[in-house]
Design a protein that fits this description.
Layout: H1 2-15, H2 17-24, E1 27-37, E2 49-50, E3 55-62, E4 68-75, E5 81-87, E6 93-101, E7 109-110, E8 116-119, E9 132-134, E10 138-141, H3 149-158
Parallel strand pairs: 1-9, 1-10
Antiparallel strand pairs: 1-2, 1-5, 3-4, 3-6, 6-8, 7-10
Length: about 160
């Protein structure tokens, strides 16, 4: 019986303790993308392109007072993807990614509703062990839609049940 207990303890320590160590030293990696909505459709289309050099912020607010307790920024790479490292667990905070600045003058109006993305930056009682967290894509609107957008949007509508 004692040998079974020892085997159980050994197996438990091999599988459970390594899971607890990363949680205690929480560093989160937030990944997402920024696009230019060339059709002003409010969503990504076949005419959408991803923006290199866009600045993205991550902000966390204290849940009760809504006071900003954390802020950092990152920049998108050649694929329009950002990778931002966030230190510490933000257990009692409401966090979100947000558009800060577009490097493209004619595509620099944030699309309301697609200009922020909520992100969970805690491991506290939520069952999330992974340190890589994905944010929804965020987008800017082109000043004027491309000429081919009318045809493209009609194509999307013909495929719907509306």
């Amino acid at each position: 019986m004692a040998s079974r207990v020892l085997i159980f303890m050994a197996l438990t320590s091999l599988y459970i303790f390594p899971l607890l160590i990363p949680i205690a030293t929480a560093t989160f990696h937030v990944k997402g993308s920024v696009y230019c909505d060339t059709c002003r459709a409010g969503f990504e289309t076949n005419a959408t392109f991803y923006i290199q050099g866009a600045t993205v912020g991550i902000q966390c607010k204290e849940r009760k007072t809504m006071k900003v307790v954390f802020y950092t920024e990152g920049v998108t790479d050649s694929t329009g993807t950002y990778h931002i490292e966030v230190e510490n667990d933000h257990r009692d905070s409401i966090c979100q990614c947000m558009l800060v600045k577009s490097p493209i003058k004619w595509c620099s109006t944030p699309d309301s509703g697609r200009d922020t993305s909520s992100i969970v930056l805690t491991h506290y009682q939520n069952g999330i062990v992974n340190h890589l967290h994905y944010a929804n894509a965020m987008g800017y609107l082109k000043d004027k839609p491309l000429p081919e957008c009318e045809k493209l949007l009609q194509y999307y509508l013909t495929d719907s049940d509306v």
